[in-house]
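[09:14] KT: can someone run the structure on this one? pasting the chain below
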Amino acid sequence: MVRMLKKKIKLFIETHPQSKISACILQFNDLIYDFSLYIATLVGFIPSHTIRIIFYRCILKIHLGKSSIIYWGCRFFKPSGITIGHNSIIGNDVFLDGRNGLFIGNNVNISGEVRIFTEEHDVENQNFSGIGAPVYIEDWAYIASRAIILPGVKIGQGAVVAAGAVVTKDIEPWIVVGGIPAKFIKKRPILKYTLNTKRKRLFQ
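[09:31] RB: done, structure tokens below
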């Protein structure tokens, strides 16, 4: 029933893009979406991992694997487009953008204040419209504090992105990169571990 209604509304907007009713529907939809992100921001500061995880899974529809942690202050665009594997850690004040798909593997460690984008403005388009592509972060990768990952990037297994780096292109497995833009620094040994996510600090 709900799906049928959504299809009819979508069809109406497509066939009557200039109507006032379509404008009102789109504005209402934006309002609901923005309000959900606002609530998500508030929930992000509740000092309980259990409450946050339940909200992220059940309300925001984030695909969150077993034993993974999202620390406080995390913010989102389109949370339903985000998939996080098992035993992964998302640090405090991280920004995750699921608009074009964000896929984070198992045993991935993302440190505080990291920014991951799947969409950006096309600076060569006369309408300054958005363009984007999914981001993939594979198992055992480590993204250090305040790194920025741009749309369309794939970070290979076990790769390390140094603090403050800006990643603009794919990163090969088991190497360390850093700088702006991020460049090869050295190789990393192949270490296939399981992150310990059992011990959680209450006010984080």
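[09:33] KT: thanks! Residues 42 and 73 are 8 Å apart (CA to CA).
[09:34] RB: yep, looked fine to me
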